[in-house]
């Protein structure tokens, strides 16, 4: 059942890092929330200097300033769902945890961002314990295969069976629903599934797209799940809708012409909506 109580637009807060190249982090989250008809808000936990090829630097704000941003939002606006991404430092992770315990929005999704697609660290090792505490406060956690390995202490899964086993372990240890993702498998399909301590609850899968536009897919998926969960009231339905949308957004990502110098380009978050609405760039209308 929808938790909107007669309103139409979910109010969704992203707590994440900034990617100035626009494909991941806060920038991806806001576009994904908009693509799912939500009102997006953003508390910035870290500034990164990155592009589609890699991360050049990370600048962390004082933890007290993250708290100030969080309070400025929640003192004024009822947040329907929160998506948490890059946290960067232990101090920031602790500040987000303290706010979450105080405010606890109805839907909490955590993407436990640790290492970027380009292989750069986005969470200092000292912050891993604080991240684990946060996961236990969430409704849904969305680790990719390397993040599952870091959370369980196991080697990186190479089969879907191993992915699900590690996801079950995380679900059991943190009493949380896990979205297990097969994006990093060397397989011809890309399964994603909701996994509880009891096992797989719902699975979707499709053929692996031959695409380089995968920068920010995890950010975009977790924000879509947070937004859709408010509208649909169902995690399996949210997964179906989010992954159908994401596949199309990956497929048309290359046409943006971003990341064509050898990097991983972003997905096209909003193009399908513009096409469906018949919206055309002015330059083409003349
Ligand atoms: N080549 C691909 N084709 C289709 N879907 C993909 C592809 N790569 C990633 N995905 C999808 O993108 C989402 C993010 O997956 P993943 O890459 O595992 O996470 P992350 O972006 O956090 O590393 C998942 O839904 C996954 O199935
Ligand atoms: C600010 C920020 N947050 C998250 C990611 C991870 O995204 P991806 O794993 O797709 O590179 C990123 N690269 N930058």
- Beta-strand percent range: 15-25%
| Low-pLDDT residue intervals, each spanning 5 or more residues | none
What is the fourth-level CATH superfamily? Ribokinase
Strands ordered across the widest β-sheet: 3-2-1-4-5-6-7-8-9
CATH architecture: 3-Layer(aba) Sandwich
Question: How helical, in percent, are the residues?
Answer: 25-40%
Overall structural class, as computed from helix and strand content, comes to: alpha/beta
Q: What is the straight-line distance between the termini?
A: 46 Å
Which H/E pattern describes the elements?
A: EHEEHEHEHEHHEEEHHHH
- Quickly name the level 1 CATH class: Alpha Beta
Q: What's the overall geometry?
A: globular
Strand segment count: 9
- What is the makeup of the main sheet? 9 strands, mixed
Structure description:
The chain is an alpha/beta fold and 286 residues long. It has one domain: UDP-N-acetylmuramoyl-L-alanine:D-glutamate ligase, CATH 3.40.1190. 39% of the residues lie in helices and 18% in strands. The chain contains ten helices and nine strands. The chain has helices spanning 25-35, 63-74, 90-103, 128-135, 145-152, 160-174, 217-232, 235-251, 271-276, 282-285; strands at residues 11-18, 39-50, 55-59, 81-84, 107-110, 140-141, 177-181, 192-196, 199-204. The chain has a nine-stranded mixed β-sheet with strand order 3-2-1-4-5-6-7-8-9, with helices on both faces. Strand 5 (107-110), helix 4 and strand 6 (140-141) form a beta-alpha-beta unit. The longest helix is centred in the C-terminal third of the chain and has 17 residues, at 235-251. The chain is globular. The model has no long low-confidence stretch (mean pLDDT 95). Bound molecules: adenosine-5'-diphosphate (ADP) and (4-amino-2-methylpyrimidin-5-yl)methyl dihydrogen phosphate. Adenosine-5'-diphosphate binds at residues 117, 144, 181-184, 190, 192, 208-209, 211, 214, 217-218, 221, 243, 246-247, 250.
């Amino acid at each position: 059942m929808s938790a909107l109580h007669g309103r139409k637009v979910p109010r969704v807060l992203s707590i994440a890092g900034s990617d100035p190249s626009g494909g991941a982090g806060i920038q991806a989250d806001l576009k994904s929330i908009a693509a799912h008809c939500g009102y997006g808000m953003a508390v910035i936990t870290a500034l990164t200097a990155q592009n589609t090829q890699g991360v050049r630097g990370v600048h962390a704000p004082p933890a007290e300033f993250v708290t100030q941003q969080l309070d400025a939002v929640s003192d004024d606006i009822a947040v329907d769902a929160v998506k948490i991404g890059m946290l960067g430092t232990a101090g920031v992770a602790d500040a987000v945890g303290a706010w979450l315990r105080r405010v606890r929005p109805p839907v909490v999704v955590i993407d436990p961002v640790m290492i970027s697609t380009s292989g750069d660290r986005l969470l200092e090792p000292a912050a891993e314990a604080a991240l684990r505490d946060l996961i236990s406060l969430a409704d849904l956690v969305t680790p990719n295969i390397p993040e599952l390995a870091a959370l369980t202490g196991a080697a990186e899964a190479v089969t879907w069976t191993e992915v699900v086993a590690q996801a079950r372990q995380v679900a059991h240890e943190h009493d949380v629903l896990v979205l297990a993702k097969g994006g990093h498998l060397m397989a011809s399909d890309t399964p994603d599934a909701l996994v509880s301590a009891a096992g797989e609850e719902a699975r979707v899968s499709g053929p692996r797209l031959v695409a380089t536009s995968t920068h920010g897919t995890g950010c975009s998926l977790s924000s879509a799940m947070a937004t859709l969960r408010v509208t649909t009231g169902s995690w399996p339905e949210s997964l179906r809708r989010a992954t159908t949308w994401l596949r199309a957004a990956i497929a048309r990502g290359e046409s943006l012409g971003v990341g064509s110098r050898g990097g991983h380009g972003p997905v096209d978050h909003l193009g399908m909506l513009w096409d469906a609405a018949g919206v055309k760039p002015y330059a083409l209308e003349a």
